[in-house]
Amino acid sequence: MAQPYRHYIDGEWVSGAGSETFESENPATGESLGEFRQGTPADVDRAVDAADEAFEEWRELSRIQRAEYLWDVYHELRERTDELGRVVTKECGKEISEGKADVVEAAHMVEWAAGDARHPKGDIVPSEIPAKDAYMRRKPRGVTGCITPWNFPVAIPYWHMAIALVEGNTVVFKPAEQTPWCAQIIAEMFDDAGIPDGVFNMVQGFGDAGNAIVENDDVETVVFTGSAEVGHLIQDKLGGVAGKRAACEMGGKNAIVVTEAADLDVAVHSAVMSSFKTTGQRCVSSERLIVHADVYDEFKERFVEVAEEVAVGDPLQEDTFIGPLIEAEHHEKVAEYNELAREEGVNVLVDRTELDADEIPDGHEDGHWIGPFVYEADPDADLRCTHEEVFGPHVALLEYDGDIERAVEIQNDTEYGLAGAVISEDYRQINYYRDRAEIGLAYGNLPCIGAEVQLPFGGVKKSGNGYPSAREAIEAVTDRTAWTLNNSTEIEMAQGLSADIKTKED
Ligand code: UN1
Q1: 47 and 169 part of one domain
Q2: Which end of the chain has fewer surrounding CB within 10 Å, N or C?
Q3: Of 50, 66, 293, which Cα lies nearest the Cα of 163?
């Protein structure tokens, strides 16, 4: 297809109303990966009109018929995993095993949604009245706006869209502006699957396009994954509007608790994975390590050793662990937080904000490179660096003394509540953490990244607004109906309520 790449609206590839274009940039090299049309609010409105119009027919199909289109997408994701994994890596800089895992996670989500189409949905509920049949059924809500982040450019769009489509909604997809190539491929897959015109639409672009989705009266549900800042704006806009729904997944200031009963091999491995995979740019990445005094020195020594040695480099190479940050602006933000931590008086243990020249691979001088930044801080100090989400390999070691209650108190000392892990061989400590850590995704003796789609994905507090993604996305994209049918010609009421109509004569 000739560049610039276009939007996909009502079954057609269209240039849209605006004349602007934007480039996708490889964050490891700075090279352009392609030119894309920049969507305008008018393009979004056109896509919403198409989705609104397509909704009436799409909802009339059975769930199983709708899922057939997704099975085609599933097979394509599976057949092209390696190729698409490389695209993910080139466009968002995650190392290659992560690029492929993103595509595999997408396939799993589509498989879950399409397979679920043949599963029972809803409940048969007892009634007090023998002749009454009571059910809990679900109805699609209509046009669903999906606004997705760059860090899982294939998986998260399918988290939003796969269940929405199977349940009978139509979709307007606004991908992150950093990863339009991945979005282009997603749209091509729906086109190849022959999905009916208007059921799936994609508009490339920036915040004004996303905002047009949120502000369009015909969009019933907005599903958003991204920063807390934008998520709260969406919630504020839609929260008070009758009938509208916003399902938002936002960030975290996630922690790993390492107790005195921890296996330190498991602890160090879990911490390294959680803090440095995806260069710390997962909403579930860990930026706090809460470590018991009895094991603190040994843990610190081992963690610091890995943080000094871990391989930063070309994400397409299998021996790389940390790829670049997504873009120059974000690099600046992470570097500023590293600087802020120093200003706040922490004790810096590892500072690879500036990499040595020989660490940067040839031809990659324009990449947004950064290495780990590790420091120790007082868990009781009111520091910005230990409370605000940085979204980079910026990690605080917080030493605690005392029992698991104390560790969980530190864990909960954040406005966020997304993910976390406890490392311990003591089941009482693990159970206490499981029940009291204020998070939606909790792990024992594991990293706090790597959730699977057959579990709900979502946080509490500032991290989410109660509509999880992955398997529980159904809650966001459907309405429940309590449906009761009388099989008799008599009307009989529950609770002993009289059904007699009494007249003046009685
Ligand atoms: C995100 O970072 O926005 O749990 C999602 C994980 C992945 C999803 C992360 N399955 O690490």
Answers
A1: yes
A2: C
A3: 66
